[in-house]
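Figure 2 data, in text form.
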Amino acid sequence: MSGPRIQLIHAVTAAQAPIHAAFQRLWPAARTVDLADLSLAPDVAAAGRLTDAFTRRMAALIGYGVECGADAILFTCSAFGAAIEKARAGVAIPVLKPDEAMIGEALSLGARIGGLATFRPTIGSLTAELEAAAKKRNLKPALDIRFVPDALDALNAGNGARHDKLVADAAAGIDAADVLVLAQFSMVGAREAVVAKADGRPVLIAPDEAVKKLRALLG
């Protein structure tokens, strides 16, 4: 018997390999299918905020996944959390925001959360989602979410080593944190470099936590 069909919705191509690898390691029986809208990231960067138009676009992408027979939908770009939250209301199948499983795990691990992102619009989205999730749990964590300049440009240019070093160096500068989160799927390759500078603190990556949550929901 084949596993459930998971519709993956991407805004950047760099997110595809990390989430496929996570499924292969953690839930190989799941059937993943890809849908990409590569105009989303430049459009939200140009807009500077999530408008109602982005909510409508998320709803259209969700609707396409449902029509294609998905058992669940996972978005892989972290800059659209609020728009996804609105767009998934009333949808009959699970629709996961990229970071929500990781955020839940981070909140369970400590009151001080450090985070890193290489795409600037992700900062506001991740911060808002952490605060909203914490409020639901009656928690008030201390947040230190930082942007890592030049790292995404390096990755897009094929220089993964420079990307990983920039992210790890930024992580080393976050002293007051019980747990570190890498906010984007595209940052997975930097995890080991970050772990080496994390002084034993947990380092969470969104793809692994998302796959584990989906498997718990459907597996």
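Caption note: Strands lie at 5-10, 31-36, 72-75, 95-96, 112-117, 142-147, 179-182, 203-205.
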